[in-house]
Design brief:
This protein is of the alpha/beta class and 240 residues long. 44% of the residues lie in helices and 11% in strands. It is globular, with a radius of gyration of 20 Å.
């Protein structure tokens, strides 16, 4: 049987907190939507860490991204801030001061670039808007105080977008897009994490940027079934 080197699909690397970790879940399904859209074109590499902030993600990034992975990465999303924006006194475990939050994002971008991901391939996603009324019920069930508010989340979202502008990366201002809605709470399933509607919104915001970054990726790897040359099957299938 004829053989050829293994083809490695281009990678869309998703890095972030729980909203990234849950991106294949029933509601928070923006990763599922991307995987479906890019089926047979790109692999999704999901590295989401529930509860993590930029301080911790800045520390672990060198353990999950190296030059070999970067070489195959066509887009790298950084989706953080929902945890950093917790109140310092009520939730010191997750809170990260605004100035440090900005510097941590810059460090993450700088490291990704040092491994070979150009700034044009990096997309910073702002934290989503926050529904305190809904999340307070979750906090009550967990026996924890409500330690977030939407105004502070908005400040961190603005800071995220500012870092993107300063570093020359792409950005998705999810917070502002949600707040332009008549009822932004419909984009959340528990006040903090994305609902199906919120996932659709994020997909719609990301897709134009990803389409640009994947313009050189073949429409499909290997020929469509009706394009296989039955007179020369091996060459038809392996001439990729």
């Amino acid at each position: 049987m004829a053989s050829k080197k293994i083809i490695s699909w281009p990678k869309i690397f998703l890095f972030g907190d729980s909203i990234t970790q849950f991106c294949f879940s029933k509601d928070g399904c923006w990763g599922t939507m991307l995987a479906d859209y890019y089926q047979r074109r790109c692999d999704l590499m999901v590295r989401g860490f529930s509860g993590y902030n930029t301080r911790w993600c800045n520390i672990i990034l060198p353990s999950i991204l190296d030059a070999d992975i970067a070489k195959e990465t066509v887009a790298f999303t950084v989706f953080l801030g929902a945890n950093d924006s917790n109140d310092a006194s009520l939730n010191p475990r997750q809170h990260v001061p605004l100035a440090e939050f900005e510097q941590n994002l810059k460090n993450i971008v700088t490291f990704a670039m040092s491994q070979g991901i150009s700034r044009e391939k990096i997309i910073l996603i702002s934290p989503p808007a926050f529904n305190a009324e809904a999340w307070s019920k979750v906090c009550l069930e967990r026996g924890k105080p409500l330690s977030k508010d939407n105004d502070t989340t908005g400040v961190y979202a603005q800071a995220c977008c500012k870092v993107a502008d300063e570093m020359g990366t792409k950005k998705v201002d999810l917070y502002s897009a949600m707040m332009r809605s008549m009822d932004f709470t419909l984009y959340l399933n528990d006040g903090l994490h994305l609902s199906g509607k919120g996932s659709e919104l994020l997909f719609d915001l990301l897709q134009p940027l990803l389409k640009q970054l994947t313009s050189d990726v073949p429409e499909v790897w290997f020929p469509a079934y009706d394009q296989v040359d039955l007179e020369n099957v091996d060459q038809s299938l392996l001439d990729v």
